[in-house]
């Protein structure tokens, strides 16, 4: 069964939601039959990268609030993140447009490295304070998860995979997704936000149970039940 997760690497609740979902999935009996696909989403596609901008002032200005309000809000986010083992260093955060980062994540998905890419980019932004719009940083991050140097460089030199990012964004719009993280289970159930792990467990149980019951049972034609070897080493 497929679980699709729409996410932006600059979304604090997306990283928290990832951890909570992972905790639920780790304990889920059918986890080996679950496939996770990460989907691109930009909370602010028109954002201009501002490497020298203080994140507290940026959010305060955007929300029409005071700097003190912004600091308190970010402190609360950092506390929530710490409860799932994450470290948010907002003092080091760099205001950056995430579009090119999403293109590298799309490249990673082509090589089966989508989850590794999401994790690496989240950590780079929230913990390390890296500028995820800087081509040199993107090159470094891409290579760090096992992508080929020249393939990453070619994507950054071009507009490659921009269509893949835009396709994910369009899909989100068609599904009525207006915020992230958003989890879609078997294209039948949607879970919005960084829910507690128990909520993800409940959603997985319901969606997986229906998916499993809909899978066709294989039948063996009469007389064609031959000799086999099994994982436990028995051959008969």
Automatic annotation (TrEMBL):
Top-rank taxon, per record: Bacteria
InterPro entries named among the record's database cross-references: DSBA-like_thioredoxin_dom, Thioredoxin-like_sf
Domain DSBA-like thioredoxin per the UniProt entry, residue ranges: 3-204
Residue ranges crossing the lipid bilayer per the database entry: none
Isomerase keyword on record: yes
Coiled coil regions in record: none
UniProt KW keywords: Isomerase
Gene Ontology molecular function, alphabetical: isomerase activity; oxidoreductase activity
Record flagged with keyword GTP-binding: no
Name of this protein: Predicted dithiol-disulfide isomerase, DsbA family
Organism: Chitinophaga terrae (ex Kim and Jung 2007)
